[in-house]
Amino acid sequence: MSKFKAALRGAGCIATILTMGSQIAIAQEETAPEENERKTAVQRMLDTVTVTATKQKDPENVQDIATAVTAFNAETLDTLKVRNLEDVSYNAPNVVLADIGTVKGAANFAMRGFGTNSSIVTIDPTVGVVVDGIPLGVAAGVVLDMFDLDSIEILRGPQGILQGRNTVGGVVAVNTGNPTSDFQYSVKLSTESPIDDGRGGFNSYVQGTVSGPIVPDKLNGKLAAYFNKDEGYFKNLANNQNHGEAEATIIRGALEFLPTDNFTMLAKIEHSNFDGDGPASQNRALYDRNSFDFAIDNTGFYDVKSTFGSLRMDWDVDFGDGTITNITGYRQYEADTDSDIDSLPVAIFDGPSVLDQKQFTNELRYNGSFGDMTVTSGLFYMDQTIELAETRWIPVAALGGRTPFPGGGIQDHQTTGLFTQLEYQFTDKFSMQGGLRYTIEEKDVDVTYIIPALLRGIPNCSVIEGTCPTDFSDKKEWNVLTPKIAMEYEVNDSGLLYASYNKGFRSGGYNFRLTNPTVSAALDAQINNGNKYFDKESIDAFEVGYKFESDGGSVLLNSAVFLTKAKDMQREINVSSPTGVSQFIYNTADAEMKGLELEGRFVLSDNFLITANLGYIDAEYTDIRFPISAVSVTELTTATVQDSDYDLELPRTAKYTYGIGAVWDQSLGNAGSLVSTVNFQHRDKNPYTDNNAGFFNAADILNFNVAWNTPKDGLSVSLYGKNMFDEVTAGGDTQTPFAAEILGQQSLGPPTFSPLNKGRLIGIELSFKG
Fold first, then answer.
1. In angstroms, how far apart are the furthest CA atoms of the chain?
2. Which residue segments constitute the domains of the chain, with CATH numbers given?
3. Which residues pair with 589 in a beta bridge?
4. How far is it, in rounded angstroms, from Cα 305 to Cα 356?
């Protein structure tokens, strides 16, 4: 608690300093002479940022919402050169939006101490991702290329009332560009490359959009296309070849139909193809974890196809001057992948897999006002099927050498949610919200253990093709009622004080990666009442915050303090074993997270803007019912909970995240303008696994962008850099038994499977808009 109080005092000092700076900024703003008619980049970034995730009739100003939100409008996303969700990971406090790296595009998101350390697709994500109002059913295929974005909204804390599915950590809402009523187009050409010796080649992008009226005032259309070719960033020391070669193609179409003044339809369809090399997996028993060195014999691959469609209908009605909205969504995702899990230049453990996921969602809701009461109510339904076939190729001397371990499973998953949120305006300054959601989640599975095919008397098999036997079938339903209450008080025209309580949950499920069925059965009997499923996780979240925005938006200061109590946390226990890595999922512990978040924006002139953010978390276990410090399968079945278990840090929980950035727009007269942006963000070292054996390096990420807006209206050229300090980061740090001694070398440390992220690079972009 003393550390938490110290952090609060520190934040108070920062807030005081920033507020003093803001007063100077206001004074300068009042005395600064007016510029010419050109609207600077700073002024454009001050345009009101609205949030759609609250599902009101009209998008709300981010400053008027009683929850901690970081939102990026199209201007900011363009300035940050955002290609995927991972690119905004370092721009919000207490947030990690990472690709786990085991399988390309698999999200490993964490917020406020809630995250996963596994790519097992049947684990519900702690952080939900919503695209154009449609929640994605799995974390697979989330950290893939994106473009033509209207906004990204990061809502921290549980958002289960209105977001389609319950989440315990938060929600990332992505809104792609809509058709426009006037003719617009844009083209972007860019290429980027490592600048350090011994690393890959060029990574080039082409993207374009065209939008406008097809039938004036009745039908608007939009067509967008994106292509990326990456020659690879890394150098595989096993063959001295570039590694990370990839291609991506995305085609998106949209139609907006306005048959009457009070009824609109918006349809979007997108098809994507992604293919490339498997992960650049580093074994840290062989190479320094602060280097980009790695050597693998299996290049691996990923081949991903995705089709995503949505149909939104809005009908304005006289009843409560409200709107009835229906959003229907469909997604089909197919991924064929292979990874070198031993991370060594010899053939030991390779992990090919095939994943097919289909989901259908529909949400019908009403939003309207009756005097001082605003009502948002609706019904959500999701039906998804997950089919996963994994194979481990591992040497087994008794079976004659490298042999396949096939397995996986098929899951049918239905979710139904009935929700209502009421907001009552008691006075001009004070209002209260109350919400309630009743959720029914049902999962029906057929599971095949990942064991040697020869022990089954067959050479190999596939779950998806139906040639593998089913080792067990089961079905489980969870019925959960989650409430919410919040209060808002407008201190003045510029300040909003709020407090909230949310109940959140994450439904239980099944482990599709059962590599030790005998051990799993013993643990099920010992700690799980003989059940083959892991149960739901629930949280109680309390938050108090203050939002301030000066008249004109030149000064913005948002702060939040939160306390979250988690019960029956679902933990993915990863330990090395003779089968490579064994992963068990159980409700192992209760925990408590306390923290604060501070975000600021300060305009010193029409040409110069500063941003800053700070996040702090003090997380600890309050009750542990399983030896989470275990590092081997044997310890899992023989060890007991020790006092030392309570000293372990919660995975994926960086104690401090902070950053500062600046935007400077310099007029060049008849030569146009120069817009310079620099952004520095820090994240503390934090554990990856429950036993804290695997961890993420501390990272200091520095990005910059210098854009010349030419005298030709809409034409600009940008020079940008990412990760300029060349920090080594990875998607995970899983412990394996494949040490350097296998190659006759001395190990530098515990052997790992650590998929590397890109380091320093420089790029140039040509953009034309009209």
1. 84
2. 2-769 (2.40.170.20)
3. 569, 624
4. 10
